[in-house]
Amino acid sequence: MTEIHKLSLKSAREALKKGEFQAVELTKSHLDAMEQNKGLNAYILETRDIAIKSATIADQNIKAGNARAMEGIPVAVKDLFCTKDVRTTACSQILGNFTPTYESTVTSKLWQTGAVMLGKTNMDEFAMGSSNLTSFYGPVQNPWKATGSDKILVPGGSSGGSAAAVTAYLAMGALGSDTGGSIRQPASYCGIVGMKPSYGRCSRYGMMAFSSSLDQAGVFTRDVTDASIMLEAIMGHDSKDSTCATLPVPALEKALNGDIKGMRIGIPKEYNMEGISPEISKLWQTGAKWLKEAGAEIVEISLPHSKYALPVYYIIAPAEASSNLSRYDGVRYGLRVPSENNSLDEMYELTRQKGFGAEVKRRIMIGTYVLSAGYYDAYYIKAQKVRNLIAEDFKNAFAKVDAILAPTAPSAAFAADIKIDDPVTMYLNDIFTIPASLAGLPCISVPAGLSNEGLPLGLQIIGNLFDESTVLKVAFKLEQAANFVGYKGK
Amino acid sequence: MSLTEKEIIKIARLARIGLSEDDKQVFVKELSNILKMVEQLQEVNTDNVQQLQSITNSSLPRRKDEVTDGNIAADIVKNAPMSEYNCFVVPKVVE
Predict the structure, then answer these.
(1) Which residues lie closer than 8 Å to A186 by C-beta, 6 or more apart?
(2) Lowest mean pLDDT segment, chosen from A71-80, A235-244, A425-434
(3) CA–CA distances in Å: residue A340 to residues A335, A346, A347, A350
């Protein structure tokens, strides 16, 4: 058995328990694969020693019959999550060699269930982007290529490194974060599963803040079952995050096998917008047909304020970012560019000029503007009101349906050398993922088919607030019907 | 709505981000484009609509006002570019 790193998380867990191979072997198999795939730039830091040490402990636990939920399973961590004594940068120059003295809640939950950390993954700087092109550590390559082409494609973003790592069998699962689509869109571009639970399900403690009312941790895996296992491990109340829900964690893995007969699945008519590619449209219809064949009833629904989701997001997210990122000032951590005149203000300006990349500066500037005196009501308050209307749309829809089916992204992965003069063009990538984020809803992207060029395309299931179980149940049926064959490797 | 170079300088100053001459021109164009996109919201009637500030909690949880951690000054300054006596060192601000 030479390719144990290509197993699913669930199969590997069973094989470990049966003693078919050791956790250390499984970890080494991943470390070798990482070595051979450095060109993807998925990892910006490999934690080999920590991995071997954790895997050794896992082997002892398995041997003693004390295996925990993810005992010995090698995973990757987006560099947005603080890991104690392991450099954490959010892929920004401004954090320099920041080395946290504490552990984020979601990563500590993973380690408590026995998971093994392989390393920290690349991402768009501070999770701002849909391409992974804004990372200080350089772009990530999508392992997939279009049929008959060598052109390098983006993995999507912002969690591009995590998505590429799981796709190329460099981790069995990976942590990501989703503010407006940063898990679902890269999952769709890479042909894997990406799930973001409801806002409040995972603690944000130790997750570097971008937009606090939207940020939520989530997972990448190669199938829906694995997503349910890993998500269950990271959810749950934490007194260190006041917005974290106090609800008990549902048994997600057990929820998968439920029937969807008689379930009502909504198709939002507003998502059938102009400019949506015909192959995405077709896949969406096919997805609805699959769910109908599995016994669900397909219902057309209306989410009338959908078209305002993008403008609402590009006011609220930058506004919150401008406030959250004010802490990077060259005083407490990371980069400091001293002022020749020994001026504090000039030191702030020089540090932030050098330390932040173009996209981050753009969003801080927009956020500062919409929060500034004289514009606050017209932009920020207005956006929060329209956000309420968008959340109401979903509330009304969920009075009639159990889940919603939608495309994940408007296209397949695009070329890494793309020239984009207008940032708004890039923002349009998140047009199908942003509305549910604004309403805080649980969503998943499931790989459902290939484009005409042979690239993966995902479909999205959106559920009612805190109803992760239904989302996974429907996703599982979709996965069975799609029978998608993942990246085969080199 | 289009922003002027003067407004860009003001915003950058508020955000404490230094600007090169080229940056100013680029930001005038890019930020104006973003503002044009978000201006669609003005067509939505939001009379009598409440602001949505939080998805999960109408009121934040409370706990007793007790010290739950502390004595970690060395940890806090550990990543500082300059520190002395467990304090952050900055250029002099008060004459």
Answers:
(1) A132, A155, A156, A157, A158, A159, A160, A162, A163, A176, A194, A220
(2) A425-434
(3) 16, 9, 9, 10
A-chain CB neighbours of B79 within 8 Å are: 98-99, 101, 332-334
| Residue entry with tokens 């164009």 | B29
Mean pLDDT of the region A27-32:
98
Exactly one of A29, A104, A159, A182 is catalytic; which is it? A182
Cα–Cα separations (whole angstroms), residue A448 to A296, A451, B7, B49, B72 = 18, 10, 47, 38, 50
Burial B57-69 (b: 16+ CB within 10 A, else e): eeeeeeeeeeeee
Q: Is B31 in Cβ contact with A369 (below 8 Å)?
A: yes
Q: CB within 8 A of A352, min separation 6: which ones?
A: A94, A328, A329, A330, A361, B15, B16, B17, B18
| Mean pLDDT of the region A470-479 | 98
Q: Rounded CA gap, A296 and A365, in Å?
A: 47
Mutate to test the interface with A, among B32, B42, B47, B56 (most CBs of A within 10 A): B56
CB contact under 8 A, A386 and B27: no
Look up A158 and say whether it is catalytic.
Answer: yes
Q: Which residues contact A413 (CB under 8 A, 6 or more apart)?
A: A142, A144, A153, A154, A155, A156, A189, A190, A455, A456
Read off the tokens for A477: 């049926």
The answer to whether the CB atoms of B80 and A342 lie below 8 A apart is no
H or E element at residue B84: strand B83-84
A65-95 confidence digits (pLDDT tens): 999 999 999 999 999 999 999 999 999 999 9
Are A238 and A203 in contact by the 8 Å Cβ rule? The answer is yes
**0.90 cut: is pTM over it?**
yes
Give the pLDDT confidence score for residue B80 in this predicted structure.
97
Q: What's the pLDDT tens digit per position in A348-384?
A: 999 999 999 999 999 999 999 999 999 999 999 999 9
Return the exposure string of A381-393: e unless at least 16 CB atoms fall within 10 Å of the residue's CB, then b: ebbbbbbbbbbbb
